[in-house]
Every structure is written in structure tokens, then in C-alpha cells.
Amino acid sequence: MNNNHTDYPGFIDFLHLIEDYLTSGFKTEPVVLQAEEAGERLQEGKPEQTSTQLESLHNEICACTKCDLHFNRLHAVPGEGVGNPLLLVIGEAPGGQEDKKGLPFVGRAGQYLDKWLQAIQIDRTTNCFITNVVKCRPPENRDPHPEEIRMCLPYLEQQIKLLKPAFLLSVGRISSQLLVESTKGIGALRGGTYFYRNLPLVPTFHPSAVLRDQSLRAKVWEDLKLLRTLMRR
Ligand code: SF4
Predict the structure, then answer these.
(1) CA-to-CA distance for 45 and 48, rounded, in angstroms?
(2) Looking at ligand 1, which atom is closest to the CA of residue 61?
(3) Which helix (H) or strand (E) holds 91?
(4) For 204-220, what is each residue's pLDDT tens digit?
(5) One CATH from 3.40.470.10, 3.75.10.20, 3.40.830.10, 3.40.50.720 for 46-232
(6) How far apart are the first and last CA of the chain?
(7) pTM, full prediction
(8) pLDDT, tens digit, for every residue of 83-100?
(9) pLDDT tens digits, residue range 43-63?
């Protein structure tokens, strides 16, 4: 990455988005759930009851001391978004900005992720929920240890049960390997559709990786287009 990128990250990201749109033939179109399907999903749980259960789960996460990651956190980061989302995005763990604010994907990578999602008409304020496999920041942003993932995974399982998303998008190696149950790298895992708890899952690169290596952008758009196709079926 050259110095100009670090001087004007937002502007450069915006240019990249335009370039992605032009070079990948990426066109945004409304993603609409079939009315019947949407109705079925909404009726599966009473919204008020689910919302209370989610709030209770997120309070539990914020007070959790099950693994050593709680020692250094400023905030646990349960996730952010709407209940009963069309899409649940799953990353690996909070970073520095997320730890400070208690919200997922709020740094530069998070803003980039929001642009990806907006390109397929997904937004955390309307039809998406964003979370991580591990809810507390690992020191120096290291990879979460297997034991930490094991301790934290029940929270994600509970979130999936309560949120009832229609589709899953895993971003990055850690969450993708976990959900696909594979040790392959993300470069080998992406490009296909999998299932986790009977939900269609599309793995792709982590936005931080794409900010570091711009050659990955076209592959991310391929994955987003695949996801968009699934959502429109
Ligand atoms: S990472 Fe998960 S298991 Fe560990 S303290 Fe935080 S919430 Fe608890």
C-alpha cells in the first residue's frame, strides 16, 4: 500500500468501489425475500420474546469471564444489527476500535465491509447482523486460540438460534475454517457455498486482508455476487 492510500483511505476505498463496480460488472439490484418465506421466518419466534432473549444473551457475553481474553478487554463485542436478519456476517474477533467502542467492524476494515454489503443492498441497520466467533479482543490482534474459540462458540450458536438469519457470510480464515469445518486456507474455501446448521454459508476474505492486498477485490465481488444470487432465489 503506498502512502497516498494511508493519506486518503476513505477516498481511495471509494475509488476502488467504483472500479470494482465497473470491472466486475457488478450491478446492485434489490434483494427481496419471497413474501411467504419472510412470513415463515418472522413467525418462527415471537419478536418481543426473542429480543429479550438476545438482550439477555448479550448482557451475559459482556459479563463473561470464561476465557483469559476478558482480562485485557475494554468491552466485549456481542455484535450489532437487526433481529431476524437476512444475513449474518461472522468475522473472527474484535480489533482495537471494536474493543474501544464495544461494536463490531467499526474501524477502517469495518467501513470497507459496510461498502461491500451496501453493494448488495445489505446494511446492519436494516437487514443484517454482524458478529465474530470470539467476542473479546485477543492481545495485539493475534489469532484467537482454539481453546478461546471453543469457550466462546456457544454464544455464536445461541445468536444463530435466536437471530434466525436466512444466510451466513463468513469473512476471513478463522471463521470460515470453523464454520466449514476445514483446515484449508480461505483462498481455497472461498468461491463456493456451504451449509452451517442448515443455513447457506458463503466464505470470503476478511476486509483487512483486502485492504492489504488489493488483488483480492475481484474475488470478493465474485463471492458477493454468489451470495446475492442465493438470496434472490
Ligand atoms: S472471548 Fe468469549 S468466552 Fe472469552 S471471555 Fe470473551 S465472551 Fe467469554
Answers:
(1) 9
(2) 7
(3) strand 87-91
(4) 999 999 999 999 999 99
(5) 3.40.470.10
(6) 38
(7) 0.84
(8) 999 999 999 999 999 999
(9) 455 677 889 999 999 999 999
**What residue's CA is closest to ligand 1, atom 3?**
152
Evaluate: CB of 76 within 6 angstroms of ligand 1.
Answer: yes
Give the integer Cα–Cα distance in Å for 74 and 231: 36
Q: What residue ranges do the domains of the chain occupy?
A: 46-232
Largest pairwise CA distance in the chain: 52
Q: Is 90 in the pocket of ligand 1 (CB under 6 A)?
A: no
User: Which pLDDT band, with edges at 50, 70 and 90, does 68 fall under?
Assistant: very high
Ligand 1 pocket residue status of 231, Cβ below 6 Å: no
C-alpha cell at 49: 420474546
Give the CA distances from residue 73 to residues 44, 141, 146, 150, in Å, rounded to whole numbers and listed in that order.
35, 12, 18, 18
